[in-house]
Amino acid sequence: MDYTFQFEQVLPQLPYLLGGALVTLQIAFVTFWAGAVIGVGGAIAKVYGGTGARRIASSYVTFFTNTPALVQVFLLYYALPDAGVLLESMTAVLIGLTLNAGAYLTEIIRAGVISVRRSEMEAAIALGLSRLQILRHVILPHIARTIYAPLSNFFVWLVLGSSVAALFGVEELTGRAINISTANLRSIETFTVIAVIYVALTLVASTSLALVGRWAFRVRAKVF
Amino acid sequence: MFDRILQEAPEFLTVENLVFLAEAAGRTLGMTLIGCSVGMVLGLLIAVLRQSRARALLPLRAVVILYVETFRRIPFLVIIFIVLFVIEPLVPGVSLLGIATVAVCLLSTAFLSEIVRAGLEAVPRQQVEGARTLNFNELQTLVKVILPQAWRVILPPAAAFVVMFIKDTSLASQIGVIELTFAGKMLVNRGFSPVLGFGAILASYFLLSYPLSRLAAALEKRLASP
Amino acid sequence: MHHLEIHNLSSAYGSHQILRGVTLEADRGEVISLIGPSGSGKSTLLRVLIGLTPPTDGQVFVAGQPVDYMSRKSLRALRNRMSIVFQQYNLFQNMTVMRNVTVAPVEIRRRPRAEAERDARAWLEKVGMAHKHDAYPENLSGGQQQRVAIARALAMNPEILLLDEVTSALDPERVNEVLDTIRSLTSEGITMVIVSHEMAFVREVSTRVAMMDEGRIVEYGSPAQIFDAPREQRTRDFVSKILRH
Prior knowledge:
The structure holds 3 protein chains of 3 kinds. By secondary structure, chain A is mainly alpha-helical. Chain A is about 75% helix and about 0% strand. Chain A starts with 13 loop residues before the first helix and ends in a 7-residue tail after the last helix. Chain B has one domain (about 1-225): MetI-like (MetI-like fold, Orthogonal Bundle). A 6-stranded mixed β-sheet of chain C has the order 6-7-8-3-9-10, with helices on both faces. At the B-C interface, helix 6 and helix 7 of B face helix 2 and helix 3 of C.
């Protein structure tokens, strides 16, 4: 094979790519927190809601966790104009990925909620704590400790999953790589560079999350 | 929008289209199952390699660890593209489905090797030591003692991984593989309403994924340590 | 010539010295017991003898032959003559009692299955577990599992049997059934090295007792001497502390 690697064609573009990495993180961040709002609602609905609320939440979760995020966004992106709603790429992607994330987060948070043991609650009641105090000092810390590791892993997963946005023209890391490589035709070098950036991003993310977890909750998570 | 759907439905739900979708679903399933089977076998080899302490194998172990830790941290979309750019000039005429399957194998091997490794390490050390003191060699210990006990820990997360991967194969559509997602795009390009087109795709994925995810959940329940 | 000879055996884990020049010998058929406080290196000594933990110094001789712990061939030969029973998790959980006992003779020693099963049944009878030959370990009590583990070790016809605190993980009611089994073996002519906290038992069955502390043999003599007339202060301290319970 007669191929000479020409990384010099890509490396000057590093600032541009790193800008894309920033967008990637922003997407992950937004979809995580917006999804978390849905997740809390969904978890509460599934654990404490009436039959109707439970069924809706269940159907939502089942639907979004058994179908690919890419197709969910396709549907949103192409179907909404038909219904008269014109969305910008980024918005459609964010909505689609948020709905997707919300389903998974519902399950993670739900697992945390049902993990609170009755004995902990009964002990708190016996000690005379008010319901609000119990919530604040017993339930929420327990849930936070339980779900911190799964949530960290999920965030990292979202960072990787945000690459789907590139397929809709969003200029996050993968999107910018596509831009560059269509211009300089150095596809292998460009994509290798962003692969390295993704690895670095996820390593930094998971390491910092693990460190924060150790400090805040004394959660014994693997740092590396 | 809804009138359009009602209008197009009969034209959409033809035998021809359904066969087309079924073939695409076949490719989706094929990529997933072949990729994950290969991933399981290679993952087992990697896990066993990582457990051994032979000094001669150290460079190989280092390469393997680098591979696993790297490929778990790159988006599948990027992996697919890289595999495409590397293989296509090397092997002219290779099918896109083949390229996508190679990408699936690369990713699934990395993830499954970790799952297998956790399973192997879950077997109590004394079981392995007992085998050693009875003069079992490494292969005999692995086959007769470790694996029969490790598979219970390996199977549930492995099944969950396969279920997750069915959805990831949708990214293969981006290099032109005519799997379910690409089929959906084709139908929409032919003029069908996106709701019909992508709706049918979502339904197809659901039909593939849901039964498997229930199976995975049942496995988790039955095999979870008492 | 002694059956088992240990000369100045040492073993270290990183910078932590666990065995410091242990010297011991046992004649054929003798029952040697190792007693001493936790962390004194008793279990490590057994692990080094069977080759699970590498020695950093010293020599071991079995029937006059030196053991090379770095050589696979030597280790195989050693384990054909020496068997060990651990504190727990001995039995292969994925095999029945009978299979546990016969797997090594059949697969490793290549004996015909029928012959191995006949022998296995005899050993299982001896430990009182023949009726459970079809059971899986998870359905047996701790004491029953340990007895099967002993049968499995014996099925290899060892000259030397190592027992590493085999009753320490058992419920008190189960301890005696295992001790009875061990007691009945002491007349089989197998050289035994036992690590145990069961002092009355140790005193009763042992030919000689070694008191270990901080990786060294502090005192080595007959049970009467060690328990009734210890010469070393540390032995005295340990024995009086134990016997006070």
